[in-house]
Design a protein that fits this description.
CATH architecture: Up-down Bundle
Low-confidence stretches: 1-23
Strand content: under 5%
Membrane topology: Multi-pass membrane protein
Shape: globular
Transmembrane segments: 37-56, 62-81, 101-121, 141-163, 175-196, 216-236, 257-276, 296-316, 350-368, 374-398, 419-439, 445-464
Distance between the termini: 9 Å
Largest sheet: 2 strands, antiparallel
Pfam family, one: AA_permease
Strand order of the largest sheet: 1-2
CATH class: Mainly Alpha
Protein name: Proline permease
Mean pLDDT: 83
Structural class: mainly alpha
CATH topology: Amino acid/polyamine transporter I
Organism: Streptomyces laurentii
Number of domains: 1
Radius of gyration: 22 Å
Length: 478
């Protein structure tokens, strides 16, 4: 084991000892270009391209405001993470901070929960990608899923640089699609071309029953869906230990969060809802596809299908990357099997990535065989798992900021605007979203599995603690 007990207080940990990726065995191979696109891609997923239709039909144009407010909260979360990363840029990220600022059990829960989040997400996304392939070719879904998994698995084992390059191009496709849609819509509004030119107008944002056509209550109920769309934005934190220049690159990537959300979510929805009245959208139908059809562009469905295929593969690729790192971090701290610490010559976690990829393939098979409610419950739980990472980031930031203000820890050069209060506001907002989930019969199922997973982790931790007391101590890398 590579951890050593050094005391009972987390402030005894010195940031400098964990700042070196070489000490962890990783290679700093991710450049600024790749980190920027990983950060951008993490905020853009199938939730926007496919899921926004349900939100539009429920909240109307006010969905734009929901995305803007949720985007501000995401910015608070990312700046809190950024302050922690500049204090101590490590690959374990959230689980390392949880271990240091909350306690060993919190680190254990966070590491395994975030690992589960990406395994389940990988299962659903590679399954979805295989489904999207049938749009063009009559290929068995199991075959597409198998090929996608092996290709992404191989790319992640070759080098972290190849992972970064794949994410760069996956994100580029998503960004190009959204920017293209915005430009086309802007052209229609100003020049009046296409089939939608005669009726397109920004007045659609308020002349179809007002900005809140179904009431503020329904707008609030969409916040849970909106927050789900932002899951994985925190992935950039996992790359800290493998960035070439984390103290320069990561702040720049995190500071792009406001304009990313403003352009890709708020901007895109303003344009689409100005060209097509919100009353024409339906749940389950991509607003992008419907907008393309309204413009008379028959290739719209094919374009969006290609983009969501790319988004699904991007998410699966991210899952391959993060699961191996999380398992290795747990193992390095005695909270996971020691064999997960093994690295390839190129600095990638061989066993952890292989184990996670194997589970993803088993999950794909299970999904094909029993696509019923039980599997859907597990998939739904992935959402709670992702939000747990946000909660941990915010709690750790509050505790770090208090220690730093007292002079007990070094100041971070990248302080979060609003300090502790911004993190408290973000925590309160997430709490409100969870309450909304409990009130919504369709989303309530997301909360059912959390206590069972928590109980399983508690029992596992108690067994681990009895066998290896060091794993329950505040520790630092040797």
């Amino acid at each position: 084991m590579t951890s050593a007990q050094v005391g009972t207080q987390p402030e005894d940990i010195e940031a400098a000892e964990s700042d070196s990726a070489a000490g962890e065995g990783y290679h700093r191979a991710l450049g600024a270009r790749q980190i920027q696109m990983i950060a951008i891609g993490g905020a853009i997923g199938t939730g926007l391209f496919l899921g926004a239709g349900k939100g539009i039909s429920k909240a109307g144009p006010s969905l734009i405001l929901a995305y803007a407010i949720a985007g501000l909260v995401i910015f608070f979360i990312m700046r809190a993470l950024g302050e922690l990363l500049m204090y101590r840029p490590v690959s374990g990220s959230f689980s390392e901070y949880a271990r240091q600022f909350i306690g060993p059990f919190a680190g254990f829960v966070t590491g395994w929960t975030y690992w589960l989040f990406w395994v389940v997400t990988g299962i659903t996304e590679v399954t979805a990608a295989a489904t999207y392939m049938t749009y063009w070719w009559n290929i068995p879904q199991w075959l597409s899923a198998l090929v996608f998994t092996f290709v992404l698995y191989g790319a992640n084992l070759i080098s972290v640089k190849l992972f970064g390059e794949l994410e760069f191009w996956f994100s580029m496709v998503k960004v190009t699609a959204i920017v293209g849609m915005i430009l086309i819509c802007a052209g229609i509004l100003t020049l009046g071309f296409s089939d939608a030119g005669d009726t397109a107008s920004v007045t659609h944002l308020w002349d179809q029953g007002g900005f809140f056509p179904n009431g503020i209550g329904n707008t609030l109920m969409t916040l849970q869906m909106v927050m789900f769309a932002f899951l994985a934005v925190e992935l950039v934190g996992v790359t800290a230990g493998e960035s070439k220049d984390p103290k320069t690159v990561l702040p720049k990537a995190i500071n792009t969060v406001p304009w990313r959300i403003a352009v890709f979510y708020v901007g895109a929805l303003i344009m689409i809802l100005s060209v097509v009245p919100w009353t024409e959208f339906e749940p389950g139908v991509s607003p992008f596809v419907h907008a393309f059809e309204k413009m008379g562009l028959g290739i719209g469905a094919a374009i969006v299908n290609f983009v969501v295929l790319t988004a699904a593969l991007s998410s699966c690729n991210s899952g391959m990357y993060s699961t191996g790192r999380m398992l290795r971090d747990l193992a390095l701290n005695g909270q996971g099997p020691a064999f997960f610490t093994k690295l390839t010559k190129s600095g990638t976690p061989l066993v952890g990535t292989t184990f996670s990829a194997a589970l993803m393939m088993v999950g794909v098979w299970v999904n094909y065989q029993w696509p019923g409610d039980a599997f859907n419950y597990v998939v739904s739980f992935a959402t709670i798992s992702g939000m747990w990472a946000w909660i941990v980031i915010l709690v750790c930031h509050v505790r770090y900021r208090r220690k730093a203000d007292q002079g007990l820890l070094a100041e971070s050069p990248f302080k979060a605007p609003g300090g502790i209060w911004a993190s408290i506001v973000a925590l309160a907002f997430i709490g409100m979203v969870i309450v909304m989930m409990a009130l919504d019969k369709d989303a309530r199922v997301l909360l059912y599995c959390a206590p069972l997973w928590g109980l399983l982790l508690l029992v596992s931790y108690l067994v681990l603690k009895a066998r290896n007391p060091e794993s329950a101590a505040f520790a630092k890398r040797s």
